[in-house]
Write a structure and sequence with these properties.
- By secondary structure, the protein is mainly β.
- It has no helices and 13 strands.
- The chain has one domain (about 10-140): Immunoglobulin-like, CATH 2.60.40.
- The protein starts with 9 loop residues before the first strand and ends with a strand.
Length: about 140
């Protein structure tokens, strides 16, 4: 049978103290290229062109405190890798920041075809610190 599946959207949450600055992107093993694209960034954040991709990363648009924001990622339409992880750099102030925080990996369903129209991911529960969520970053003082 034919499956009609809408584009997969993967919510990414940054859990930890409030922060002012951020750089968030998706990558695959052994590559620094930003993968896929992000949906409309939440308040106080904006797109950042990364690896020639105008929606390849999200960064802050001001230094207001940010907390409990959800960033929504869309897989690439072609050349989709079998595994991805999210990488964030988060700044609370000029003196306090966390570089290259990585989420656990997410595996693409081996039966999935490439392309945003029909693309599924197999999720594992991500556990980091005492917190767990689908895709999760944790950072501590």
């Amino acid at each position: 049978g034919t499956e009609n599946s809408s584009p997969v959207r993967i919510p990414v949450h940054l859990l930890g103290p409030v922060y002012r600055g951020l750089l968030l992107e998706a990558r695959t093993f052994g590559s620094t290229a930003a993968l896929g694209s992000w949906q409309t960034p939440p308040n106080n954040t904006r797109f950042l062109q990364c690896s020639g991709n105008p929606q390849g990363a999200i960064t802050h648009s001001n230094t207001e405190f940010k907390t409990k924001q959800t960033y929504t990622w869309l897989p690439p339409a072609s050349g989709c890798p079998s595994v991805i992880s999210f990488v964030a750099t988060v700044a609370q102030s000029h003196e306090i920041y966390w570089l290259q925080i990585k989420s656990k990996v997410i595996w693409r369903d081996p039966n999935a075809t490439c392309g945003v129209e029909r693309y599924t991911w197999t999720f594992t529960v991500v556990t980091l610190l005492p917190l767990h969520l689908l895709v999760l970053f944790g950072y501590i003082y």
